[in-house]
Amino acid sequence: MLVDKIEGFKVILASGSPRRQQFFKELNIPFEIRLKDVDEIYPDTLQGAEISDYLAILKASPQKEEIVEKEILITSDTVVWHNKESLAKAANANEAYEMLRKLSGEWHQVITSVCFTTSEKQIVVNHTTKVKFKELNDKEIWYYIENFKPFDKAGAYGIQEWIGLIAIEEIQGSYTNVVGLPTQLVYDTLMNITKE
Question: Looking at the annotation, which residues are catalytic?
Answer without folding.
Answer: 77
